[in-house]
Design goal:
Order of helices and strands: EHHEHHEHHEHEEHHEHEHEHEEEHHE
Number of strands: 13
CATH architecture of the largest domain: 3-Layer(aba) Sandwich
CATH topology of the largest domain: Carbamate kinase
Shape: globular
Number of helices: 14
CATH superfamily of the largest domain: Acetylglutamate kinase-like
Number of domains: 2
Mean pLDDT: 87
Strand order of the largest sheet: 3-4-2-1-5-7-8-6
Distance between the termini: 34 Å
Low-confidence stretches: 141-145, 203-210
Strand content: 15-25%
């Protein structure tokens, strides 16, 4: 049996556990989770919560039609967020800290580092960080699966070794257990490929917004960065008793053996791509085989509008092979594509670098 060891974990709890009635907060399913968190902290382990539920918690406070508008959802979140935090705080005898994020906070390098530093200080001072998306202002974040992926990003920025995703079923099955009584739980998955995604169905609840697809997406982000990921049944109190014994009650996604460093993780998973640079065979080989920087001589096309310092995909024959931070903006890159590095200054009137993307700011895909 695989022993479940960890030192710093992110635990994601969804709306259907926070507000099972779909109208207000409840501790019905949270007491077992809270006990696991408290007992783990007493053992010297560190925990960060990613908690959905603000919209569901405030749903009963805002008049709305069958399908609430964005504005109505944001109003629900504004009311429900305080109730959700109070609900968690009632279960602990230590401080809980609220952290509200948007995707932009994770795409900006400076804010990303600030989040990391804030989490570090909170853990250092024995507080429990509780992270949620800022649903009161972030329209794009009110979409399917947002907090499963937010939990993965939080695990990455917090440099956690473990992500625990609470679901409403025991884990990933080889078929839909709601429809197929012979479906079998898959206790351990060592490689996430398309066949694993094919096993995932749609959302199982009209309260939460994340189905198994987004949980596997989150697991994939984490295992590729060396973070073990576990899907457990958040409605089953015995699951957390099993976890406390170092045993696995659900599905464990084992991490890759090679860990990405923090900057590569940020480049790979959290930075939005603003454009595309197409390269020739020589540049492709230099990037993939020699660990080289990208030079202007290897560029054959530039697409998109991006500024210096923004992320772009590097493609060969329309297939992405790398991602990195452009040193020049799109217009200047278009002007110097195909040129040798010593020709940049004569063409642009300046030469901030002989490289287009430095190797330190580049991650292979």
């Amino acid at each position: 049996m695989t022993i479940f060891n960890w030192k710093r974990a992110v635990i994601k709890v969804g709306s259907s556990l926070i507000a099972p009635s779909n109208h207000q907060c409840s501790t019905q399913y949270l007491e077992a989770i809270a006990k696991f968190i408290s007992d783990s902290r007493k053992q010297g382990k560190e925990v960060i919560l990613v908690s959905s539920g603000s919209v569901a918690a405030g749903r009963g406070k805002i008049a709305h039609k069958h399908k609430p508008s964005i504005a109505e959802k944001q109003a629900m979140a504004a009311i429900g967020q305080t109730q959700m935090m109070a609900n968690w705080a009632s279960l602990f005898d230590f401080d809980c800290a609220q952290i509200l994020l948007t995707s932009d906070d994770l795409h900006n390098r400076t804010r990303y580092v600030n989040i990391k530093n804030t989490l570090r200080e909170l853990l250092k001072n024995n507080s429990l960080p509780i992270v949620n998306e800022n649903d009161t202002v972030a329209v794009n974040e009110l979409k399917v699966g947002d907090n499963d992926n937010l939990a993965a990003y939080t695990a990455l920025v917090a440099e956690a070794d473990t992500l625990i995703i609470c679901s409403d079923i025991d884990g990933l099955y080889d078929a839909d257990p709601r429809k197929n009584p012979t479906a079998k739980l898959m206790p351990e998955i060592n490689n996430i490929d398309q066949s694993i995604f094919d096993l995932a169905g749609g959302a199982g609840s009209d309260v939460g917004t994340g189905g198994m697809q987004t949980k596997i997406q989150a697991a994939e982000k984490c295992v590729n960065s060396g973070i073990q990921t576990l899907i457990v049944n958040g409605r089953d109190a015995s699951a957390f008793e099993t976890l406390a014994k170092g045993q696995i009650p659900g599905t464990l996604f084992t991490p890759k053996t090679t860990l990405d460093n923090a900057r590569d993780t940020w480049l790979r998973h959290t930075l939005k791509v603003r454009g595309t640079i197409s390269v020739d065979l020589g540049a492709k080989q230099a990037l993939l085989e020699k660990g080289a920087s990208l030079l202007p001589s290897g560029i054959i096309d530039v697409q998109g509008q991006f500024d210096a310092g923004e992320a772009v995909n590097i493609c060969f024959e329309e297939q992405p092979i790398a991602k990195g931070l452009a040193i020049f903006n799109a217009a200047d890159l278009t002007s110097i594509k195909g040129l040798k590095s010593n020709q940049i200054e004569a063409k642009l009137g300046y030469a901030s670098s002989k490289e287009v993307i430095h190797r330190d700011d580049l991650v292979l895909l």
